[in-house]
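Shape is hard to put into words, and the shape of a protein is harder than most. The fold becomes a row of whole numbers, each drawn from a learned catalogue of backbone shapes. The outcome of that step, for a single protein, is printed below.
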Amino acid sequence: MMLPIGDEVRRMSTPVLTYVLLSCNVLIFAYSMLRGLETIINNYGFRPKYLFTASRLETLLTSMFVHGGPAHLVGNMLFLYIFGRSVEDKLGPLRYLLLYLFSGVVGNIVHAASACLLPEPLVARGLYTPLVGASGAISGVVGAYTVFYPRMRVKTLVILYYVVVLRIPAHLYVLAWFAYQLLIGLISLGLPLSVAPWAHVGGFAAGAAAALAIRRWTTS
């Protein structure tokens, strides 16, 4: 396991929007626990069938703010905190928010497409199972971070048979992370996994592409 716990970027502004997103996700999760997590997931999660029937498309957005459990929430918020602050500092709050939402929507769409590639007995399950979590959006933030800060070192807690802290160049850290997501995604095409790796892959690609476009536009 490799957990990011810091980076070397010297930020020039306070990442207010990142803190707002962190707070919103935590508060919504607390509300979900009070109201009934399963009910909230069923009401606001994104089911791939919605995309193909053009119904309840608002769940492409609402699903990003619902999480399936404490570990799901904490893992996502850790990545958002470590990578989001620097991306917000680079883009400013408005472009950062647009990139975040765009990546999340694309991640959900890619996840929906992947559900159609499951073995036929599992297609119905894939189309009707609600997807929740900010993973696609945050993967987009990670993609943007890689574009803007490829050589910055990410302070990483590596947990194997022992625990060690390493400083890994961002492009190498993200390459390993992306390769893992892609591997799990390929495996998931034949198995009913409880994770949504294609949402991660799609979100990452969307965020990286958006960051490249922004960088090209601002430097031309």
